[in-house]
User: Which sequence fits this backbone?
C-alpha cells in the first residue's frame, strides 16, 4: 500500500513540475523571421542552365558550354552573364570572330573590367589595335599599377609603330620589375626601331648579364 501511495505521489509531483516549467517557458517570438520556404530557395531553369554552362567551360567542354549558354539566351535574350560566358567559351574553343561579335553586341558601359579586358584581347586577336588600345588606355587611367595590362598596351603601341608611347610604357614596367629580361629585350628592340641604337645595345646587354 505504501509503495502505491509513494508512486502516485511521485507521478503527481512530476506532472506538477512539467506544468510549472511549461508556464515559465518564454512564448514563441511571433516577430522572428521565418526560414525561407522551399519555393523561395528554388533555382530557376535559367539559373541552373547558366551554372551548368559555367561548369562545362571550366571543364573545357566548350561545345557543350556554348550550347548551354545559347539555350539561356534563347529564354532570356538580355542575360548579360550568359553573353559574356558565351563569348568566353567561344574564345577558348578557337572561334575568335564569334567571340568578339558576341561581346561587341553588348554596350561597353554594361561590361565590368574583366569583360572589357577580354573584349580588348579579342580585338587584338582580330588586329583591331586602335579599339583595343582605347580600352586598355581607359582601364589604366583607373588602375595605373596593373603592369600586365600596361605591358599589353606597350606591345600594341609597338605593333602600331607608336614607339615613343611604347618606350614610355616599357620603362614603367621595368621600373617595377627591373629583373624581367624578356621585357627588357622588348624594350631594347623598340629602342632600336625608334633609332636609339646606343640605348638599345645597352638594354640588350643588360638583359644578357642579369
Assistant:
Amino acid at each position: 500500500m505504501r509503495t502505491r501511495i509513494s508512486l502516485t505521489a511521485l507521478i503527481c509531483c512530476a506532472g506538477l513540475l512539467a506544468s510549472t516549467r511549461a508556464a515559465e517557458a518564454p512564448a514563441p517570438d511571433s516577430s522572428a523571421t521565418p526560414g525561407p520556404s522551399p519555393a523561395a530557395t528554388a533555382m530557376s531553369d535559367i539559373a541552373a542552365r547558366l551554372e551548368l554552362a559555367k561548369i562545362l567551360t571550366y571543364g573545357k567542354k566548350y561545345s557543350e558550354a556554348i550550347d548551354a549558354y545559347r539555350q539561356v539566351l534563347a529564354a532570356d535574350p538580355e542575360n548579360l552573364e550568359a553573353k559574356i560566358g558565351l563569348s568566353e567559351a567561344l574564345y577558348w574553343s578557337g572561334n575568335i570572330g564569334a567571340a568578339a561579335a558576341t561581346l561587341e553586341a553588348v554596350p561597353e558601359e554594361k561590361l565590368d573590367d574583366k569583360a572589357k579586358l577580354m573584349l580588348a584581347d579579342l580585338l587584338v586577336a582580330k588586329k583591331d589595335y586602335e579599339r583595343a588600345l582605347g580600352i586598355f588606355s581607359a582601364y589604366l587611367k583607373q588602375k595605373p599599377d596593373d603592369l600586365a595590362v600596361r605591358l599589353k598596351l606597350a606591345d600594341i603601341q609597338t605593333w602600331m609603330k607608336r614607339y615613343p608611347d611604347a618606350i614610355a610604357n616599357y620603362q614603367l614596367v621595368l621600373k617595377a620589375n627591373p629583373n624581367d629580361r624578356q621585357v627588357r629585350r622588348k624594350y631594347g628592340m623598340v629602342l632600336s626601331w625608334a633609332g636609339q641604337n646606343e640605348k638599345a645595345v645597352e638594354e640588350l646587354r643588360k638583359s644578357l648579364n642579369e
